Amino acid sequence: MSAPQHTPGPPRFGQLTYTSFDAPDRGRAGGGWQVKDVTDGVSAAEQEFMRAGVATRFDSVQPMPQFPTPADIAARPRRLVYAPTDTGGCYWHTAPAGADASGRPGNVFAHVVVDREPGDAVRPIERWGSPDWLAPFGADAVAAAELPDRAPAPGGSIDRAAILDFLLDPGTWRVGVLGVLLDAVDQAMHGGPGVVLGCVDTESAARWIGAVSHFMSPGAAQRFGWSTADRSTTVVDTLSRGVHLVCVPTGDAVDGIAGCVVLGETDTPDLGEWGGEPHRTATGQLVPVTSWSVLAQTVLVDPGSARRALDHQDALAAAVGDRDLAGTWPLAMAVLANPELHDALPEAAAVVLAQSPDALASFPDELAIVGHVVDEHLPGSMDEACRVVAEWRRGGGPAPVVWDVAGRVLTYRALADREWIRAAGPAEFALFATWPHSEDVEREAQKVLSTLVQSQGTDPAAAAHDAVKMLDLLLHARLVGDSGRDLAASLLDRVVVPVLCDREAGPALVTGLGAVGADTYRLLQSAVAGHPDFAGRPLGARLAPEVLRWLVDEVRVPTSDELIAAPCRSAEPLCAIVADAVFSVVKSGTDDHKRAWEGYAPLALWRALYEASAGGWASSDVDALVDAYPCTVAQWCELVGAFPDHVPPRLLLPVLLLEPWGPEVEMLVKHIDANRGGTLVFGVAHPVDELAVSWALIRAQDQWDRIDDPRLRRALERHGWPVLKDYGDACPAQLPPDLLVRLAVVAVAGFLPVLPAAQRHLHAHHARRSCRRAGARGGSGLGFRDHRPGRSGEKWCPERALGGPVGGPQFAGRAAHRIGAESRRPAVPTAGRAGAGAAVASRAGRVDHHG
Fold first, then answer.
1. DSSP secondary-structure letter at 63?
2. Helix and strand tally (H, E) in the chain?
3. pTM reported for the whole predicted model
4. Beta strand 195-199 with 245-249: parallel, antiparallel or unpaired?
5. Where are the domains of the chain?
6. Mean pLDDT highest for which of 283-287, 591-595, 675-679?
7. Tens digit of pLDDT for each residue in 75-133?
């Protein structure tokens, strides 16, 4: 199976001829105006477009003789019209053809060529005078005319040499008319009125069209529409086809042709000034002065200079592809490249700034010319240069490629101007964020950073100030790449952070710096949090308050919910900075300061526990933080889950004592019980941790029927007394009911009977006080079951053990009396302690529920 054949697109050129013809010898039944021949590939739509532009009347100023000689036929006038299209352009070449086959005079023969995709350096007007244009005369010649295989080639009469000879003819001053004509055509090509030029003949018309075309690149000339020969009555129709310049006989060039700008080739117009008065035509019409006319007049100083400048114009255009170039840009670049033509430097610079093409970015040599223009155009002062560039931006700015060049020029200047950087800030640096990444400038930035790292200044504070300012500029300009970040980290570590961590130099530094960008803050936070000068001090003593406020200015920190969802975020540098600020406020802040930082307290606690778990950090006063900003039981559960080995039991004591029994309290109690033999937290032993363990174990105890169990007996002996003593000495009476009952059970039913006599006697008053305080809460609501033989299932409760209800003054008295009696009993022998345990078991049984 053969591969499908590729179907090529239509050729670049398509041609047809249109005339009135009838060839009887070929047997044609019809005649009249029609398409005579057409090349392959011309679509129906193209045929219609090409046919519609044909003028079937040639109204010459000097009509052909009735019986022309061969010389008359050769000299007959011709008309060539060119109109740009969306993809290329179209030519209509017409000439008188005498009488048609029926004998009717006034026949016209039109040879039409469509250029679908212009791709060479030929300006359309250069095809004027080509012998390839078909122009038969007479019916037989018309019938015999056949389309050539190729489109008409340049005729050679409108080349550069001919145009310069025409313009610089010493006998006729044409530069003034050219200047006005160029500016009028520029206006027309940008949507302004069409231009009508009166010429003595079509050859002169073609030269004027050639003059306009040669002062733009070939690609730009292909977007310039024109006609070499029209009459005042056909001007409007011709202009409607996309034509910008229509040449007419001198007598037809009168004022008021459908609002067009009308000029005569022999006029002496009043020339205007760029940026000032406009031109004034001979008929009084005003034409704004553009840089095009100024550049052209400068170039036409002599034939040699003009030739070199125009050749350079075409070479520059070709170098960047000559696609969609502004008409004046190549000529302006040629003027800039030649110092002899710098009389028009301001005009050329303005064109280059406004019209440089995007493709220029791929051509370093040409781009360097633009860079030089920008550098010369900007004021020498950085402040003034930034102001000019900012005005460019607000006013629409220069061409995009020029804007990028301006960014590189201004950045190079800034990197070399340390005084400006010291005085500038984010408002000025923000301008540098508008330019795209540039590898050459990034390399220059790395050199600057390397120099700062290696420099050994005598003033550490000044060096730190310069380093932060430079980094702020580079980060705004996105000039700190991967290798640059290593240099930046080294610079901060060696030069900046030691000053920030100094309690005196740090505040002075941040006061002098003022605000910096968000990226700079983040980089500084990372550098500070990882520096030994910071980590080696406890939270609250690492940075001066002024430095802390400066480092966290308008920077978002993780919320409690975010920390719960991702505990690893507590390791972020910003969390360390904020935690240091919170601890500092707890240590020495006013009440207003403490209220202001209250929202960050959970984060500070998360950070402190993270540092305890990670190691390598100085320990911090977590107790003071928790005292100032108490946590809820839910918060403690999240912290215990995130840092199970590093939450000190003493921190949980308030919720153990005051929160009602529930799943969260039960979780914390079990956590303390499971981890009471673990490692020290924050590197030191704390007596309250052991007390918290005792409270947790007492609150968790609900198996009283096994009082003889050695573990429970040891636990009661070890933890029961500290709990009762702490309750009697320091705890509030408003404890949860389940905890009050446990205290009573421990005191009456379990703890005192098994203590040695000396210990019972020594601490009886603490037990009495504990029971009296417990009694203030009223009945316990807590019951046990008596499992002694013969009493299985009989309910027993603390009220029975104490001889009355738990509550009221009578309860306090009964409990004190009972405890006092127990304390005066003789010591129970070791063997008797088991009996006491059995008695407790028989009296208490098993706890049915928690209060």
1. P
2. 42, 14
3. 0.71
4. parallel
5. 13-144, 160-289, 291-412, 413-621, 701-847
6. 283-287
7. 899 999 999 999 899 999 999 999 988 888 899 999 999 999 887 889 999 999 999 99
pLDDT at 180: 98
Q: What are the angstrom distances between the C-alpha of 213 and each of 81, 348, 471, 592?
A: 14, 19, 52, 79
CA distance 695 to 657: 8
Separation CA 535–CA 529 (nearest Å): 7
Q: Where do runs of H (alpha helix) occur along 288-399?
A: 291-299, 303-319, 329-337, 345-355, 364-377, 382-394
Residue 35 has phi, psi (to 5 degrees) of: -75, 125
CB within 8 Å of 208: residues ≥ 6 apart: 181, 197, 199, 247, 265
Identify the pLDDT of residue 616.
77
Q: Which residue has the tokens 């009977």?
A: 753
Q: Are 849 and 795 in contact (CB under 8 A)?
A: no
**Which of 211, 178, 151, 173 minimizes the C-alpha distance to 15?**
151
**Residue 722: which residues within 8 A CB-CB, separation 6 or more?**
690, 691, 694
CB 483 within 8 A of CB 474: no
Q: Rounded mean pLDDT of the chain?
A: 83
Portion of the chain with pLDDT greater than 70, in percent: 81
The whole-angstrom separation of Cα 509 and Cα 249 is 81
Q: Which two tokens stand for residue 700?
A: 């968790």
Query: 32-42 pLDDT, tens per residue?
Result: 899 999 999 99
Instruction: Output phi, psi for 249, to 5 deg.
Output: -60, 150
Strand partners, 246: 196, 227
